[in-house]
Amino acid sequence: MGIEVVVEGLTKSFGEQNIWRDVTLTLPAGEVSVMLGPSGTGKTVFLKSLIGLLKPEKGRVLINGVDMVNSPERDIYETRKLFGLMFQDGALFGSMSLFDNIAFPLREHTRKKESEIRRIVMERIEVVGLLGAEGKLPGEISGGMRKRAGLARALVLDPQIILCDEPDSGLDPVRTAYLSQLLIDLNAQIDATMLIVTHNLDIAATVPDNMGMLFRRELVTFGPREVLLTSDEPVVAQFLGGRREGPIGMSEEKDAATLAAEAAAATAVAPRVIVPQLEPSPGLPPRRAVARRRQRVMSMIDELPAGARSAIRATYAASAQAPALPTPAAGSGA
Predict the structure, then answer these.
(1) Alpha-carbon span 206 to 276, nearest angstrom
(2) For 11, 38, 63, 156, which has the most beta carbons within 10 A of its beta carbon?
(3) Is 323 inside any structural domain?
(4) Over the stretch 307-320, which tens digit does the pLDDT of each residue have?
């Protein structure tokens, strides 16, 4: 099972430029979370801060009792082995085959024999659907295949926390849909805690258990997906609706006068429909996170906004009326 990640009061700047401040949230163990935000809001910086590659000025990131900001470097280094990181571009070595790229972390960080490395690498290659391409160079395959190779490499050390930095960038809608399903399938298989940084609305609508959003150097919200998907916050409504009207401008935040003029001219916007979350592909086990999330969310439901409460109750009422899935037989290897 994945590991809970607790973020407390995290603040990061580069020189005089504040990136975000006082970010506080918890990534629940084994669940899939998404962090949204317009371009330039520091989403990638946030990922690098979680794993200890960047040092925030204030705050803590607690993982198994280790603070990834303030603990001794050797403790941070050991805890970093719990992570798998999927970069935007796959970050593959151009002169290495896909097999050698995916094997790299095992050869660098373990003393496994080559026979064992080959077994692990080929298993991960099969999981991401790249069997037959392991001998190719990154330059010989499509961008979507490079993404999947990067994901396979992130999985070889059996991470308990997986961070995906804009996995959809450069992909067409069809490949993005395949990738979304792959991420859900992975969670069903390995029960890892997952955080996906994206500005893709299709991934945001269908993949996560939890959602957050960064804007104006602040965490706008973080919590069960229904909270953000039903939010009346102007920046959230603008982002999820893909509209020009709202606080987000082309190159900077809009001033108060512009926002007031837009509000005066605004027309009614149809309420957003919450689409069902993706299920694991047929033949895979159910996600163990689903039951844990339900218990967690229902324990806090009275503290949530009214729109989110209604959406959560409707979702769980619908799932209760759905036909039960057959339970795998004992020893089936699910």
Answers:
(1) 6
(2) 63
(3) no
(4) 999 999 998 887 77
| Residue 241: per-residue pLDDT | 81
- How many domains are contained in the chain? 1
Inform me whether the pLDDT recorded for 264 exceeds 60: no
Q: DSSP secondary structure string, 223-243?
A: EEHHHHHT---HHHHHHHHT-
All residues at 6 or more sequence positions from 64 whose CB lies less than 8 Å from its CB, including other chains: 3, 79, 82
Structure tokens at 276: 């069902």
pTM of the shown model: 0.87
Task: Tell me, yes or no, whether 247 lies in a domain.
Answer: no
Q: Which of 11, 9, 154 is CA-nearest to residue 80?
A: 154
Read off the CATH number of the domain in which 195 is found.
Answer: 3.40.50.300
DSSP assignment of 19-81, as one string? EEEEEEEEE-TT-EEEEE--TTSSHHHHHHHHTTSS--SEEEEEETTEETTTS-HHHHHHHHT
pLDDT digits (tens, 9 = 90+) for 132-165: 999 999 999 888 888 889 999 999 999 999 999 9
Quick check: is 209 in a domain? Answer: yes
**Domain membership of residue 174 as a residue range:** 5-224
